[in-house]
Amino acid sequence: MAMASTVMGSCVALIRPPALLLHHPAASSSSFSSLWNKLSTSSFHGEKSLVEEAFELGSRNRSMTRRCGRAMEVMAVAEVSTEYRKKVAVVRIGTRGSPLALAQAYETCAKLKAKFPELEEEGAIEIVVIKTTGDKILDKPLADIGGKGLFTKEIDDALLEGAIDIAVHSMKDVPTVLPKGMTLIACLPREDVRDAFICPTAASLSELPAGSVVGTASLRRQSQILHLYPSLKVVNFRGNVQTRLRKLSEGAVNATLLALAGLKRLQMEEHATSILSTDEMLPAVAQGAIGLVCRVDDYKMEDFLLAINHEDTRLAVVIERSFLGALDGSCRTPIAGLAVRDTDQKCIFRGLVASRDGTEVLETSRKTWYNEVDMFNAGADAGKELLSKAGPGFFDR
């Protein structure tokens, strides 16, 4: 028998067909009044129209007394309430819609399910795809359309408005200052931080002939490429991983660079021609790290996220973002930074700033204890050092 249905938010609440309601035992039970009172004072917040509709459907049966009509109404509310609780996701994860962003969201989902059996139930976790400004504007360099926040703002807005419970971000896209009301609770284990060189005709950047065109949307990559190989030409090259690989195969550019972390998460690392060492190409701040954000007062989500946090990664992100924050860095500035845990269990940090044309590169390093306070302070100090050395107008060159 078909079931009547209505949409409540993003969830479908189901109501028993009238015939089943009319013959339900509660319709003639002497205890229906107490059941009604119990439901009336419950935390159920369904639409009143659902109950009214169910009552109207049932009252077409003229043999039903007014008392049984009330009982039918009780059962309709009970049924809707039960199904509503079943259908509403316990955790709503907000993410961009690119294949890589979705892979990161599903990785988060898998780790939550592994830690919390209740989240393994069907519908307990919902992936909510949100299109960001950076996804909509693809014909301009990132530096020309606003820098940091291009791939996060709309997702963060949805979080603050309560449309989602957790935001999953590539940490290299996240502004150093989060919007008020949000907190970065956790990071997943970091992937390979290196950049991949992809080219159908050469094995490495050094083998590209003079005048070869390298496509990248990253000013960091642009400046480091031009610093090492000034005879090459670098052009803006945007799109998701699949789009850029397609453009490369069509001959739009001679070569490109992509984060190896993204290729690995998409199981596409076979496309990498070679891997650049961090000495040749220092990665972006927080490259390869996935950040998990929730509202500051959402302690349930905090508990979920803390259970899957990878502390070494989170602390590495702290020092790298502290460095970036001191430089007031964004997609408009060529900045790189990398923190690793040394064999003596201390943090080794390297940072870099460069002019856009690659003619000037300034570098620094720090070694400190692997804890949040020392690492934050070391990152900020390194950033202030390079900011002082760079001087006015450095990033405009």
Automatic annotation (TrEMBL):
It comes from the Eukaryota. This is Uncharacterized protein. It comes from Diphasiastrum complanatum (Issler's clubmoss). The lineage of its organism: Eukaryota, Viridiplantae, Streptophyta, Embryophyta, Tracheophyta.
